[in-house]
From TrEMBL, chain A:
GO terms for cellular component: plasma membrane. This is Sulfate ABC transporter permease. The chain crosses the membrane at residues 19-41, 67-91, 103-126, 138-162, 198-216, 252-272. Keywords: Membrane, Sulfate transport, Transmembrane, Transmembrane helix, Transport. Pfam families: BPD_transp_1 (PF00528). The keyword Membrane applies. Residues 65-273 form the ABC transmembrane type-1 domain. SUPFAM superfamilies: MetI-like (SSF161098). GO terms for molecular function: ABC-type sulfate transporter activity. It comes from the Bacteria. Part of the ABC transporter complex CysAWTP (TC 3.A.1.6.1) involved in sulfate/thiosulfate import. Probably responsible for the translocation of the substrate across the membrane. The keyword Protein biosynthesis does not apply. It is found in: Membrane.
From TrEMBL, chain B:
It is found in: Membrane. This is Sulfate transport system permease protein CysT. Pfam families: BPD_transp_1. GO terms for cellular component: plasma membrane. Belongs to the binding-protein-dependent transport system permease family. CysTW subfamily. Part of the ABC transporter complex (TC 3.A.1.6.1) involved in sulfate/thiosulfate import. Part of the ABC transporter complex CysAWTP (TC 3.A.1.6.1) involved in sulfate/thiosulfate import. Probably responsible for the translocation of the substrate across the membrane.
């Protein structure tokens, strides 16, 4: 191991081009990501902990933070159940239209969040939507209420769990599942004892990624929420509103909280993943 | 060794080869039914509603909406900047992937994490983050807020991971012996790169480029605070759609949205074609 790395180092050392590339890449990432990210943390703490303290004691902001967490967790739960289920169907079963479904499942990744919001409003909007007026007369308001915000969040994060679980399911194969079944295990037992432990890490990555994506959704939620103070305002909407109202301290502090969670999610995944690869 | 931390986009060859499988049982058939109902209610019907709303005014109405001066300007700016950003990403993304796979140095792990930040960071925070360095009061002494450069920069930030993460695993799996053979036969390093490495990376680069283009075209959140959304100057297509929605003009919002959806659809088809070609080659 040690010897190997020495050899690699001398090879690297003989090629000055590598240092140039390394420097270019590091500088690019520093200017595009690292420095801007650092500045947000610095701006959030420009007056010590005052800004952070202010937003955490503001009932509107704490309500927004709570709402964000509730929506994100609900969306992640829905996407995890749907994602694991559909992954198993795609990999283990055969049915007509499978290829098309597989391609369609990627659609949410390349649809603009604003278009997502518009699409949901057109169907579930209370006044002119396709289903909206019917649902509303039955007492279920979707647009400008929490259900619509959950749907928008589920939409944008939909493929993430599937993309993590499908390759793992393909890799582990179905021999163990067949063995379990031939030994008399029923479907639930096979899933709980064999399939779930095998795809455990994929599900965990998918959940962490979906959580990061869901907590930070902005455009789609903005369209369907109506952005009502103290009711349907989420954390990302607070960042925008505070900035536009010249409360930069509050805006940076809220942004700092969101960035902190996002970076924590990435670090969790990057710490877990190599263990899995080994 | 080199782990692609988030791998939001897996390389072509690793995805779908979903042929075969058991026939549906009663339980799995029911599961598929429930999943399809949910997927239809959430994704398919709403997207169809966008197309229907856009078609409400007939072809003439649709054409009038999307060729309206201000709207056409937003589409031109969005697509043009997205293309430019994708070109930069093709070069920089491949370069970053190369350094992450082939080089070893202290702090590489940190760079790996930085690559994924734009993927996980809320877009509105991304805008704020860029504003802190390149906006008013910038420590670099530049101020690009409310200019077209801001649109370019925001797109560049949010699309950073795509090509890196599609190219990286393919590059890691390349057999170094072929490169060594080329070198021993007298190929220069540039020739080896152009003739040996680049052809194997092309499908991954193309897939990443398609995704990065699609992402840029639909971007909204990071632009809100950064570009000022000035009509005819820095307004992009998704901002235009939002202002139509806010003016309660859903039909013209839908018309512009259909243009964006058509672009997304084209990207998915291109991706599918690339993946099929790669799979056929083995």
């Amino acid at each position: 191991m040690a010897e190997h790395s020495i050899v690699t180092r001398t090879q690297v050392g003989r090629r000055p081009g590598r240092y140039v590339l390394r420097a270019v890449v590091t500088a690019y990432l520093f200017l595009l990501v690292a420095w801007p990210l650092y500045l947000v943390a610095r701006n959030a703490f420009a007056d010590g902990f005052t800004s952070l303290n202010d937003i955490l004691t503001d009932p509107d902001v704490t309500h927004a933070l709570r709402l964000t967490v509730v929506i994100a967790v609900t969306a992640v739960v829905i996407n995890t159940v749907f994602g694991v289920g559909i992954s198993i169907l795609l990999v283990r079963y055969d049915f007509p239209g499978k290829r098309t479904l597989n391609a369609l499942l990627d659609v949410p990744l390349s649809v603009s969040p604003i278009v997502v919001g518009l699409a949901l409003v057109l169907v579930y909007g209370g006044r002119e939507g396709w289903f909206g007026p019917t649902l509303e007369s039955a007492g279920l308001q979707i647009i400008f209420a929490t259900p619509g915000m959950v749907m928008a969040t589920v939409f944008v994060a939909l493929p993430l769990v599937i993309r993590e679980v499908v390759p793992i399911l393909q890799e582990v194969g179905d021999e163990q599942e067949q063995a379990a079944r031939s030994l008399g295990a029923n479907a639930v037992q096979t899933f709980r004892r064999i399939t779930l432990p095998a795809i455990k890490w994929g599900v965990i990555y998918g959940v962490v990624l979906s959580l990061a994506r869901s907590l930070g959704e902005f455009g789609a939620v903005k369209v369907v929420s109506g952005n009502v103070l103290g009711e349907t305002r989420t954390a990302t909407l607070v960042v925008e509103e505070k900035y536009l109202n010249f409360d930069k301290g509050g805006s940076y502090a809220t942004a700092f909280l969101l960035a902190l969670v996002a970076v924590a999610c990435i670090i969790v995944v990057s710490v877990l993943r190599p263990k899995e690869d080994r | 060794m080199t782990s692609s931390t988030l791998a939001p986009q897996r390389p072509a060859a690793h995805r779908r080869s979903l042929r075969g499988g058991l026939p549906l049982t009663r339980v799995s058939g029911l599961g598929l039914g429930v999943a399809m109902v949910w997927f239809s209610l959430l994704v398919l019907i709403p997207l169809a509603a966008v197309a229907v709303a856009a078609a409400d005014g007939g072809w003439a109405g649709f054409w009038r909406t999307v060729t309206n001066d201000q709207t056409a300007a937003t589409i031109r700016l969005t697509v043009g900047t997205a293309l430019l950003v994708t070109l930069v990403n093709i070069v920089m993304g491949t370069l970053i992937a190369w350094v992450l796979v082939r080089d070893r140095f202290f702090g590489k792990r940190a760079l790996e994490i930085l690559i994924d930040v734009p993927f996980a960071l809320p877009t509105i925070v991304a805008g704020l983050v860029l504003l802190a360095l390149y906006g008013p009061g910038s420590p670099l002494g530049v101020n690009i807020a409310n200019t077209r450069i801001a649109v370019f920069l925001a797109f560049l930030f949010v699309t950073l991971p795509f090509i890196v993460r599609t190219v990286q695993p393919v590059l890691a799996e390349l057999d170094p012996e072929i490169e060594e053979a080329a070198a021993s036969l007298g190929a220069s390093r540039f020739t080896t790169f152009r003739r040996i490495i680049l052809p194997s990376l092309t499908p991954a680069i193309a897939a990443g480029a398609a995704l990065s283009f699609a992402r840029a075209v639909g971007e909204y959140g990071s632009l809100v605070l950064l570009t000022g959304n000035l009509p005819m100057r820095t307004e992009v297509a998704s901002v235009r759609i939002l202002s139509s929605i806010e003016n309660d003009n859903l039909d013209s919002a839908a018309a512009v949205a259909v243009v964006l959806l058509a672009i997304s659809l084209a990207v998915i088809v291109v991706l599918d074609v690339i993946q099929r070609r790669v799979m056929r080659r083995g």
